[in-house]
Amino acid sequence: MNPMRRRSPTSVPVEPMEKGTGKNQNTRICFLASLSVFFWMLLLYFHFVVLGGSTVNESFNLQAGRVYSKVKPTLVTNDLQRDSQSTESTPIPVAPAKNNQINEAEKYPFMRALRTVENKSDPCGGKYIYVHDLPSRFNEDMLKECRSLSRWTNMCKFTTNAGLGPPLENAEGVFGDTGWYATNQFAVDVIFNNRMKQYECLTNDSSLAAAIFVPFYAGFDIARYLWGFNISRRDAASLDLVDWLMKRPEWSIMGGKDHFLVAGRITWDFRRLSEEESDWGNKLLFLPAAKNMSMLVVESSPWNANDFGIPYPTYFHPAKDADVFIWQERMRRLKREFLFSFAGAPRPDNPKSIRGQIIDQCRSSKVGKLLECDFGESKCHSPSSIMHMFQRSLFCLQPQGDSYTRRSAFDSMLAGCIPVFFHPGSAYTQYTWHLPKDYTRYSVFIPEDDIRKRNVSIEETLGRITPEQVKKMREEVISLIPSLIYADPRSKLGIFRDAFDVSVQAVIDKVTKLRKDIIEGHTDDNFIEENSWKYALLEEGQREVGAHEWDPFFSKPKDGNGDSVDTSAEAAKNSWHNEQRHQSSIK
């Protein structure tokens, strides 16, 4: 409150009376004048301070303390005057602002959320997340119909244990004692949502939120309808969702640019290019409203700005920090007998695939190890067999899968194996929130063309790396493990930040930067969406992009000879064919 300064009645000067004629009359006049001044000042004080004091600068009080969404979230109006009416926490006054500062703040409804960071006594300042209370048809109802989530795989067992799936047996001693589950690679929707329920800075006051989470199971939704359903059915839930969101008062604050959601599938499942029934997927990420939101997927598009890559789930979901420490130390001590290894199948129908050449090099090498996944090889679907091979290898080869990325990359790093990538879209431009931008610290890059043209020997290339450098790179990989795994959603790590924590903080940073840019009048007039992958590689403070050594990998030539959205969509379809052929045999 900014009380007005009061003038004391005793400060009014009373001039001495002159001696002589009229003394009594002058005395009475001065007395009446003093009495009048005192009366008016008392009246002004009562009006402005006593009656008006309760509303002075009230709209800029911050609420401290954590507000958890265990109760139904409270709708908050966009009016900043009404934002301060919550009874959930104790108001903390902000230092008085100048009139021009107040006028500036009133332009932006998100100012109150930005100012929470100024309260140093609040550990959640600048970190609050508001979660939309979606109708159950957008999430929980899908789990009740879990048998319909995949055409070939019974997803019911994989949605147990908060999305982690059934516990893994450790008969061969490959895993740790606790925290290991047969997790489906497409289960991030439910894992992330359950982790959000344990987030320590939830709020039911959206005006405090640094970002707003939409708990829609987008990946599970599209998985139900990819085969044998028309485009109207495939698009129905996405259209229903954006219609619901756009009617909410929270949406109008930034037009959805502070909203984010998660889909445990690759981006191409949500980027249907046409209204042809034969075209793949739905059009969620092409909807105008969705273009404003941030969608976290296990594989993002290099040419679009509204999706961001997050790690595939691995089999390890620790409940406490000690589980992570023990596993990391174990990976450091392992004897690794193979220089390199590869687990995968050839892609004879894809002329651009280099898997055939990689398999040939593995077979001909005395220091390489191959786990072939073709012809129904059951070991390739055994988490124990895969992890055991990775644990015995110095380097793990990670060519493109059916699309740019593979879950195998994260399984190998979890085993302390240094990944070898052949396309920058397999990791370097995908997981910029979770991996160092200097990829040489933790991986080896061999361009696909070098393998395709048989110009490079993988064994010779890796053999030239000194033991000291190998040890340094492996230590970097092991240190990255916490940020690449999803902790058990029913618990919370203390020291380590897992993939969920890293992702949420990155979203908050993104929204906060956008809000500050709006206030400061910064615009991205020169932003080219097709170069989105380049912007993700920029260092702090950089805004401009130019020619890049990886341009050939992401070119979209009109003659159709390079990578394109069309070929990526075809890759998405192929991944489903391979799921049908290689559905998990984990019991």
Automatic annotation (TrEMBL):
Q: Where in the cell is it found?
A: Golgi apparatus membrane
Chain ranges passing through the membrane: 29-51
Q: Name one GO molecular function term.
A: glycosyltransferase activity
Alphabetic keyword roster: Glycosyltransferase, Golgi apparatus, Membrane, Signal-anchor, Transferase, Transmembrane, Transmembrane helix
Q: Which residues form the Exostosin GT47 domain?
A: 124-461
Q: How does it sit in the membrane?
A: Single-pass type II membrane protein
Recorded GO cellular component terms are:
Golgi membrane
User: Which InterPro entries does the protein's record reference?
Assistant: Exostosin, Exostosin_GT47
Output compositional bias ranges, type Basic and acidic residues.
549-561, 576-587
Where does the record place the region Disordered?
Answer: 1-22, 549-587
Homology family = Belongs to the glycosyltransferase 47 family.
Indicate what this protein is called per its UniProt record: Xyloglucan galactosyltransferase KATAMARI1
